[in-house]
Amino acid sequence: MDFAASLEQIQRRIRAACDRAGRDPASVELMAVSKNHPPESIRAVADLGVRLFGENRVQEARSKIPNCPGTLRWHLIGHLQTNKARDAVQSFEMIQSVDSLRLAEELNRRAEAAARTLRVLIEVNVAGESTKFGYRPPQFLAELPQLNALRRLEIHGLMCMAPYSTNAETTRPVFRRCRELALEGEKVLGAPLTVLSMGMSGDFEVAIEEGSTLVRIGTALFGDRPRPVRASSSDNDD
Ligand SMILES: *Cc1c(COP(=O)(O)O)cnc(C)c1O
């Protein structure tokens, strides 16, 4: 895979989508989703100037991060079990996949113990897919005050995934609903929710047109993912 060429093409497509939407390209951050990819590939992409990386499993990330440049920023984007919350607080600057009050409370406890604050996004399941994690919209709005009361968590915005489709256009209503939900959440909070993490390799241009501020790109940057390598039988955090 020619990472320089794929990165350049992704950046060009981000700029074009911003042009169509009348947005500043600087308002969209690119995350390289490096799950299943080895530190050598991560270093190669980091050498091109990418700083933000996403991983979906805590143990995999913890084994790779020490072998990657110390200047990189790491976000967790996969479902987190409460028994991995302590490790996650240690390893990630942001958890994008907060999908229950119970998990948020555990993260808050662990952040308190580590004497830090933790940035989070709330994962919402706008399309109601039973195979995916994330809050359904009504429950998100109902629990938002309790989530916001957790002093060690800073809620920066929402993360969502659209159902897989070969026609990216079908994802548009999902992204639009996610942005509306963020606006409804802002009313509940009386504070801004500035981050909208939405859009992956197959649908990031539509997501940008609908307001995404952070696109999570794996395959279009790294190529096809190798199969996951399990570190141990306890590595079951997905
Ligand atoms: C794997 C993954 C991505 C990246 O998907 P690609 O289609 O490879 O770009 C983005 N977001 C989440 C939550 C993921 O798990």
Tell me what you see in this structure.
This protein has an eight-stranded parallel sheet with strand order 7-6-5-4-3-2-1-8. It is of the alpha/beta class and about 240 residues long. Helix 3 (about 60-65) links the parallel strand 2 (about 50-55) and strand 3 (about 75). The chain has one domain: TIM Barrel (Alpha-Beta Barrel). The chain is built from nine helices and eight strands. It starts with a helix and ends in a 16-residue tail after the last helix. Helix 4 (about 85-90) packs across helix 5 and helix 6 (about 135-150) runs parallel beside helix 7. Bound molecules: pyridoxal-5'-phosphate. The site of pyridoxal-5'-phosphate has 14 residues, from strand 8 and helix 9.
State the share of residues found in helices, binned by percent: 25-40%
- Quickly count the helices: 9
- The CATH class label is Alpha Beta
Which small-molecule species are bound to the chains here? pyridoxal-5'-phosphate
CATH topology descriptor: TIM Barrel
Low-confidence stretches: 233-238
In CATH, the architecture is: Alpha-Beta Barrel
* Radius of gyration over C-alpha positions, nearest whole angstrom: 17 Å
Largest sheet: 8 strands, parallel
How many E-type strands? 8
SSE ordering: HEHEHEHEHEHEHEHEH
Quote the beta fraction. Answer: 15-25%
Mean pLDDT: 95
**Can you tell me the overall shape?**
globular
Features:
238 residues, 9 helices, single chain, TIM Barrel, binds pyridoxal-5'-phosphate, alpha/beta, 8 strands, 17% strand
